[in-house]
Amino acid sequence: MLNHKGTCILETARLILRPFTVNDIEDMYYNWACDEEVTRYLTWKEHKDINRTSLAVALWVKSYNEKEFYNWVIQDKKNKKIMGSICLFSVDNYNGNCEVGYCLGKEFWNKGIMYEALIRVIDFAFCEIGFERISARRHLGNLASGRVMKKCKFIYEGTLRNVIKDKEGNLVDCKYYSILKSDYIKDKLLLHNK
Ligand SMILES: CC(C)(COP(=O)(O)OP(=O)(O)OC[C@H]1O[C@@H](n2cnc3c(N)ncnc32)[C@H](O)[C@@H]1OP(=O)(O)O)[C@@H](O)C(=O)NCCC(=O)NCCS
């Protein structure tokens, strides 16, 4: 049985992961949502105006009432800039699994930010909620995302053909990965006992 807690505030060395608020709308729009390079491999199109961002955030803010809704904004602890988001979705209570998705503004790429955020969310998902498995998928061209998954010890499981519509509405192949609680806990214990 999963112990759902909703989008709790999580911390890492450099980051705070917290629920979005309506005060994040403008920064989200300018820092990542309006950028077509950020959405290059995503299923949603860059926002053409701030109203689109406003609608998305309003929906999330409403959804925070639900204990099974997990969507964090990633914020720099020091300068308080918001840089991107990370979420758990497709929650399957019966089988104890979910999927993870994430994105970050270009200005913040290649500084290990998503690695740091993902590691924290994995720990929360396994050790606090009790998921047994987290999966992730990426567009074949999205090598940086594949690298983040690998750094976090996700295992590649295979490529599904024509499985998801890209942001233009065309079906594309995706590479699928997963990480298991059993493996994660084993690694954590090994590290602890070193
Ligand atoms: C994918 C994404 C989240 C990565 O975030 P990030 O904070 O830059 O990731 P990290 O810095 O933790 O790690 C990125 C790794 O990819 C590597 N990398 C970056 N661009 C790469 C490329 N074109 N080819 C191969 N590796 C690449 C980096 O060198 C780094 O690896 P390293 O730590 O071994 O040097 C970010 O690029 C992003 O938000 N992209 C747009 C949205 C998106 O694609 N989301 C994922 C959908 S599946």
TrEMBL record:
GO cellular component: a single term: ribosome
Gene Ontology molecular-function annotations: acyltransferase activity, transferring groups other than amino-acyl groups
Protein keywords: Acyltransferase, Ribonucleoprotein, Ribosomal protein, Transferase
Domain N-acetyltransferase: 14-154
Gene3D superfamilies xrefs: 3.40.630.30
Residues annotated as signal peptide: none
Database matches in Pfam families: Acetyltransf_3
Family recorded in the similarity comment: Belongs to the acetyltransferase family. RimJ subfamily.
The protein's name: Acetyltransferase, ribosomal protein N-acetylase
Organism listed in the record: Clostridium saccharobutylicum DSM 13864
